[in-house]
Amino acid sequence: MKSYPEYKDSGIKWFGEIPSEWEIYRLKSLIPKSVNGVWGSDPEGNEGDLVCVRVADFNMDKFGVAENNLTYRNISLTQQKGRLLSRDNLLIEKSGGGEKQPVGRVVKYDLNYNAVCSNFIAKVECSLDVDPNYLVYLFSYLYSVGVNTRSIKQTTGIQNLDTGLYFNERISIPVKEEQTAIASFLDHKTQQIDNLVAKKERLIELLKEERTAVINQAVTKGLPAEARAKAGLDPNVPMKDSGIEWLGEIPEHWEVKKIKQIAFLKSGEGIKSEQIEETGEFPVYGGNGLRGYFSEYTHEGNFILIGRQGALCGNINCVSGKFWASEHAVVVDLSQEYDLLWASELLSAMNLNQYSISAAQPGLSVENIKNLKIPIPKLSEQKVIAKSLEELNKKNKDKIQMIEKEIQLLNEYKTSLINEAVTGKIDVREYHINHVTN
After folding, report:
1. Measuring CA to CA, how many Å separate 111 from each of 87, 130, 224?
2. Cα gap 16→145, rounded to integer Å
3. Rounded CA gap, 377 and 379, in Å?
């Protein structure tokens, strides 16, 4: 990409040098301000159920909304004042914190819904001299370099954006025609990047699905004939009915036992959240993994933990050493004649979540879990299966990490492209989009 012919000093730290023809403005001059601190005017409203839109509903990197997250509420005409949305309105998160409520993030409302913005969201309507698509990219840049944080006030753990202060920040933009050219360029280039990222994310999903299928086959039917022969096992194994409905046939020489016949299961010990520290001597594990650290421990050795409560009950973690197991985990103390990795992969394949007791807070009964029947090969074969799955897991993890790195680099490139375009570091006015039909 080429640069502009001439530059000048903007006097703005986060812009630096800008094209000589670009002008300096305050953000608030791009937005007509109305009464009650709401930016923009209200279209005609109708009393009744309306979509209540949050910034978190939107994909932060694209225009659009996750429809399954839409919330409908009965909004009176009085409550609609200053909140009713029109297409091309912008929405800015004013209060919250973290990934779910990223204070200062801006999205464009571009949907055909009768909708209002939810509480803690400011509606922004652009002036006629500003392209709303360009302004979204500009706000994205300001967010990425932390300009919004200068106007954030912390109150009891909640971040609040002083929009009056924030919109008083200085920025530099070109004329509207050039804004539109920049926005069109970024729309096209970011869509190309997003499509490539989506393909790589789908590849990760396929790798995970393939891994799950191979593991499920190995722990319920045994390794494929070629892998068995390579490990010195009989490749030709006759099958028999397991007598377990979900399992079907298993190798003829395998046994069927209840979980309690190969392991001792017991819920962990109670611990208060205020006792758990961010750092410490012994890790504390709950139903979903590591929760923090504590000065005491309940177990020492190698164990399997089953999540006992919550939406992710039934998930499996292997832990070792000295640790505290909380009451939200079921500790599986496996007998020595059984392989830990083999057993953990078998329990994962069983999808124990399906045995949770339906309630406001789903949970697993230790009594029910330990009476489930499972297929069991000899220890020597368990170890062969475990070694094979360990190799599979490593290869799968390495491939996924490589793809995730590629996705990270693509997203970093997209951010860099947006930042350079909206600050005038690259000149895209003569960029022509070639529409290629695949």
Report:
1. 6, 20, 51
2. 13
3. 6
Q: Structure tokens of 342?
A: 């083999």
Q: Is the dihedral of CA 289, 290, 291, 297 positive or negative?
A: positive
How many Å separate Cα 317 from the centre of its chain? 20
pLDDT higher at 265 or 434: 265
Cβ contacts of residue 45 below 8 Å, gap of 6+? Answer: 77, 80, 84, 114
Collect all residues with Cβ–Cβ distance below 8 Å to 120 and sequence separation of at least 6. Answer: 93, 94, 95, 96, 101
Pairing of the two strands 17-19 and 7-9: antiparallel
What tokens appear for 92 in the block?
A: 């800015």
Give φ, ψ of 229 to 5 degrees.
-65, -40
Q: Does 149 have pLDDT greater than 70?
A: yes
pLDDT for the residue 35: 30
pTM: 0.80
Q: Could you give the angle at which helices 132-144 and 379-422 cross, rounded to 10 degrees?
A: 120
pLDDT over 90 (residue 113): no
Q: Where are the beta strands (DSSP E) in 3-84?
A: 7-9, 17-19, 23-26, 48-53, 71-75
What is the C-alpha R_g of the chain? Answer: 29
Encode burial over 294-313: b for 16+ CB neighbours within 10 A, e otherwise.
beebbbeeebbbbbbbbeeb
Judge contact between 204 and 55, C-beta under 8 A: no
Task: Report the length, in residues, of the chain.
Answer: 438
Instruction: Identify the DSSP state of 350.
Output: T
What local confidence, expressed as pLDDT, does residue 38 receive? 46
Which pair of tokens denotes residue 300? 């020492």
